[in-house]
């Protein structure tokens, strides 16, 4: 059995004249990431691997989750390929995870996350909100063979306010 925990990066700022990759979190984004990560602390398995897009907003979100879930920031593997907005690309990356890991946490971007959740989960989600958390369980012993799974939990900041 494999478990995938997907987190869309928190709300980021469009105000500064930066390229997309370098956009930081807004105050609301920081607050929402703390809110969701504190709420899901007990839903995280004892052992897991963490991957994140290296984009500033995803890395900052991963750092906030690390602080609240108590895993070392240094354990996060930043993968350039996760700076994607395409569901098919995200699927390829997730399916490349080593089978020695049963629990994978991924910090990434939309539309990729919403498209992945709707293709592989059993609950339709119109849009995974910023700071949104989705847990999917797969009845598979291999990441490369995952197919339709069971959406275990969907949590958005709006659910907690």
Could you write a compact summary of the structure shown?
With 161 residues, the chain is of the alpha/beta class.
Description:
The chain is an alpha/beta fold. The chain has a single domain, classed as Rossmann fold (3-Layer(aba) Sandwich). Helix content is 31%, strand content 20%. It contains five helices and six strands; from the N terminus they run βαβαβαβαββα. It has a six-stranded mixed sheet. β2, α2 and β3 form a beta-alpha-beta unit. α1 packs parallel to α2 and α3 crosses α4. The protein is globular and about 45 Å long. The relative contact order is 0.24.
Summarize the helices and strands and which ones pair or pack:
Blueprint: E1 2-8, H1 27-40, E2 49-52, H2 56-69, E3 76-78, H3 87-95, E4 103-108, H4 112-120, E5 133-138, E6 150-155, H5 157-160
Parallel strand pairs: 1-4, 2-3, 2-4
Antiparallel strand pairs: 1-5, 5-6
Helix pairs in contact: 1-2, 3-4
Keywords:
5 helices, six-stranded mixed sheet, 161 residues, Rossmann fold, alpha/beta
């Amino acid at each position: 059995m494999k478990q995938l925990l997907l987190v869309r990066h928190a709300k980021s700022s469009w105000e500064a004249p930066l390229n997309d990759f370098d956009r930081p979190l807004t105050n609301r984004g920081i607050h929402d990431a703390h809110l969701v990560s504190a709420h899901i602390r007990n839903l995280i398995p004892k052992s897991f691997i963490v991957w994140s897009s290296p984009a500033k907003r995803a890395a900052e979100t991963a750092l906030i989750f690390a602080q609240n879930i108590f895993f070392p920031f240094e354990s996060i593997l930043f993968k350039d390929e996760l700076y994607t907005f395409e569901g098919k690309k995200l699927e390829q990356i997730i399916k490349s995870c080593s089978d020695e890991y049963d629990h994978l946490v991924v910090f990434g971007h939309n539309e990729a996350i919403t498209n992945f959740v709707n293709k592989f989960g059993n609950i339709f989600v119109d849009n995974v909100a910023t700071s949104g958390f989705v847990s999917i369980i797969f009845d598979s012993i291999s990441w490369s063979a995952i197919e339709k799974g069971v959406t275990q939990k969907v949590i958005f900041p709006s659910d907690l306010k």
